[in-house]
Specification:
The protein is 60% helix and 16% strand. The protein is of the alpha+beta class. The chain folds into three domains: 172 residues, no CATH class; 129 residues, Alpha-D-Glucose-1,6-Bisphosphate, Chain A, domain 4, CATH 3.30.530; 158 residues, Heat Shock Protein 90, CATH 3.30.565.
Length: 508
């Protein structure tokens, strides 16, 4: 038997039981009513034996009603718990009928008073005579005797309506149907913003509403204070139930959200218990439109944060690898220069070694740093050029063009020095009067650091060496498409290489 067939079978069985229950209840009511009609007076009629028969039938119907409640709540709650809840539903229905009868009585009194004020004495006298007539007393007793049967019918139909949702009957019996709790681990401000955004959408008429007749589909959302904590009230017009949504903070830093379906104030205070069918509809509504989307959004943002953290760690690892490639490349070239200079002049070699030690003392920290500044990179390049000046003598000259406002601007470490090395090695190594110009400028939200030499130019403009290749990879890893390396030949002679980075810094 398929699930749909099984559900149809259960539904038909419930409807059959309810029909039998209705027939038995009507029999009891009719029997009691016939006894009242046969009596000479209300008090005499109430003492007759057929009334006892009618009351016995009503008692039997009560037992059938409790058996029906146990049947509907099978495997969801204990029999005793279901019997107590069925009696609560019956009492609730009975109070609703008493309230309706009281409203009818007040309406009759109002009509009687209006007739008196209007001077319609004949109609007023007729109303008074009818209210005190024996026929009216028969109606009163009939209504009184029908209330227990009708209250059972109302309670049974409400249990039947709950039975269509798995677990709803047991949840209504033990009270968990009227309350939802969701524990989340999230930043308090982020959680409040997300909740406020979702609650704001609940009043949107284009959003799904509460699927209950006689009530407005979309609630009014009101924010109140409850012990220093935010309390959101969701109120539907004409609905005797309202939803309270609270946000609480636990001792371990986690938060839990409580959604509770309770009776409203005002005229709804005459209700004894929250209606389970309305509570079920409200809980399904809050699950679908607040709690589930909130949990999903927080899970997505937590996954995004974890992804960003992993991406950041991967980026840092990549940059470390690239910088580790630059360190031996730079150091080997510099030490080779010192060895070559010692062969030509010991004094010049010692002088150069002193400059190199001072240079390496600051350069090693720079090579392993995550961030640097324009002035620090320019200072590093100046030390290197000073070392090379001792070696090359008059064959090398250099100058810097650096505006004061760009001195402290962030700049990736160990990139500019690679361009200077390439300018020495590929640009002016064979020149008789070589010159290197380092320039920093800013325009259109971009910082540009350019290294220009007047040599013969680079044989491979694309830059396939370790230095230029690593610069391109590091710029891509740090800034994405917002930064790049420009290389090209200058008109006439020389070569230029420019690092372009955005002013706002690294990509997220």
């Amino acid at each position: 038997m398929t699930t749909s067939t099984r559900q149809l079978h259960v539904s038909l069985l419930n409807i059959t039981l309810l029909t039998v229950l209705a027939a038995v209840a009507l029999c009891g009511t009719v029997a009691a009513g016939l006894t009242l009609i046969r009596g000479d007076a209300p008090l005499v009629a109430m003492m007759s034996r057929p009334v006892y028969l009618g009351l016995t039938i009503l008692l039997a119907v009560e037992l059938v009603y409790l058996a029906f409640a146990v049947h509907v709540g099978a495997r969801q709650a204990q029999a005793g718990l279901m019997c107590r809840y069925a009696l609560k539903l019956q009492l609730q229905s009975l109070m609703e009928m008493v309230g309706g009868a009281g409203f009818t009585l007040l309406l009759g009194v109002a009509c009687y008073a209006v007739a008196g004020l209007a001077g319609v004495t004949d109609e007023q006298s007729m109303m008074f005579e009818f209210v005190n007539s024996e026929r009216a007393w028969v109606i009163y007793h009939a209504i009184g005797l029908s209330m227990p049967a009708l209250s059972m019918m109302t309670g049974a139909w409400r249990l039947h309506a709950l039975g269509g949702t798995p677990g709803a009957v047991g949840a209504a019996a033990n009270g968990s149907l009227f309350r939802r709790e969701l524990t989340v681990s999230a930043d308090a401000d982020e959680l409040r913003r997300t909740m406020a955004s979702l609650l704001e959408k609940l009043v949107d008429r284009s959003a799904p509403g509460l699927n209950r007749p006689w009530y407005t589909p979309h609630p009014r959302v009101m924010l109140k204070e409850d012990g220093g904590q935010a309390l959101h009230e969701l109120v539907w017009t004409n609905c005797p139930m309202k939803l309270l949504v609270r946000l609480r903070e636990l001792d371990d830093g986690r938060h839990y959200i409580v959604a509770q379906s309770v009776l409203r104030g005002g005229i709804h205070r005459v209700e004894l218990f929250p209606l389970p069918v309305d509570a079920l509809a409200q809980m399904q509504y809050i699950d679908t439109n607040l709690l589930a989307p909130l949990q999903t959004r927080l899970a997505i943002r937590a996954a995004e944060r974890q992804r960003d953290a992993l991406r950041e760690r991967a980026l840092e690892t990549q940059l470390r690898i690239l910088q580790a490639q630059i360190e031996p490349h730079f150091l080997f070239n510099t030490l080779a220069n010192v060895r070559q200079l010692y062969r030509s002049s010991v004094d010049a070699g010692e002088d150069m070694l002193d400059h190199l030690i001072a240079y390496l003392r600051s350069a090693m920290d720079d090579l392993r740093a995550q961030d640097s500044t324009v002035v620090r990179e320019m200072d590093l390049a100046m030390h290197y050029l000073a070392v090379m000046k001792i070696r090359m003598g008059e064959r090398l000259s250099y100058r810097f063009i650096l505006p004061d406002e760009l001195l402290a601007h962030p700049f990736p470490p160990a990139m500019l020095i690679s361009l200077v090395e390439n300018a020495i090695k590929h640009g002016i190594a064979a020149s008789e009067h070589g010159e290197i110009v380092l320039t920093a400028s800013s325009a259109d939200g971009q910082l540009r650091l350019r290294v220009l030499d007047n040599g013969a130019g680079l044989s491979s403009v694309g830059g396939t060496g370790v230095g230029l290749s690593n610069i391109r990879q590091r710029l891509e890893a740090m800034f994405g498409s917002a930064a790049w390396l420009e290389v090209g030949a200058e008109p006439g002679a020389g070569f230029t290489a420019t690092i372009v980075i955005p002013h706002q810094g690294r990509k997220d």
